[in-house]
Structure formats: C-alpha cells, structure tokens
Design a protein that fits this description.
By secondary structure, the chain is mainly α. The chain folds into two domains: 69 residues, no CATH class; 38 residues, no CATH class. It has eight helices and no strands. The mean pLDDT is 80.
Length: 137
C-alpha cells in the first residue's frame, strides 16, 4: 500500500509542467518526498507517474525501468526523453540563438564590453564550466 501523499491535483502536490528545464527540480522534489514519506523506489516511480503531465503518463508507464522498479534507471530514461533536462545541458540551441540575437543589439566599443556583457549572462557559467566554450578573460 502506498503512503498517503497529496493527490495529483491537490495544491500541495509537486508538478512537472513538461518544461525540460524543470525536470531536475521535479525529481529532486520526488526524492525529498520519498525521504519524508519513506517511499520505496517502486513508490517513487508510481507517484512520479501520477504527478506527470497528463499527455506523458501513458508513455512513462511503458518505460522498462518503470516496470523493473529501478528509480535511478527510471529517472535516466525520463531525462533521455527531454533534451536539455539534465544540468549538464541546461541551455538549448534556441537559447543560444536568442542570446546571440540579444547581444547583436548591444553596442560594443571594445574588448571590455564583450567580456562584461558575456559575464553578466546566465548562459556563460554552464558553458565555460564544462569547457564547451573558452573564457574571454
């Protein structure tokens, strides 16, 4: 029997809105609740599926790790369905295109302007931390 958790539509229930950038936070919340309610891996998978977006529930149920009750394998399988959902791939090509368009409107007078503008961007840390681009300064 599953522990008493908030129903899917209850205001206090955790939710995943389908945005890949929010998937890590959703899983962290499920992990937290798992500790609070002493959930087994099987319970966590069950509640995760209940809290999934309606359009994704059937797909998530069909995943092999959902049937084998392996929480870590289940999370990895879900991450693979949502490009950009893992923290090592926080931003997508569309984000980079948006940043490029935004930066194209900024008047640059010299090298300091380039480094100052880029350093202020939220996009710089994940890219430089993982050596996907080099630091300018």
């Amino acid at each position: 029997m599953m522990p008493k958790m908030p129903a899917r539509n209850h205001p206090s229930a955790t939710k995943f809105d389908g945005n890949p950038k929010h998937l890590c936070v959703f899983f962290e919340q499920i992990d937290y609740l798992g500790g609070e309610f002493k959930l087994t891996d099987s319970d966590k998978i069950g509640w995760t599926i209940r809290y999934a977006p309606t359009k994704d529930i059937e797909l998530w149920k069909l995943l092999k790790p959902a049937k084998s009750n392996s929480w870590d394998d289940f999370k990895q399988e879900i991450y693979s369905l949502y490009p950009g959902s893992t923290r090592d791939r926080k931003y997508t090509i569309l984000d980079l295109e948006w940043l490029t368009e935004k930066q194209a409107t900024v008047l640059i007078k010299g090298y300091p302007d380039i480094t100052d503008n880029f350093a202020q961007s939220d996009y710089s840390s994940p890219l430089t931390d993982t050596s996907q681009i080099m630091k300018l300064a």
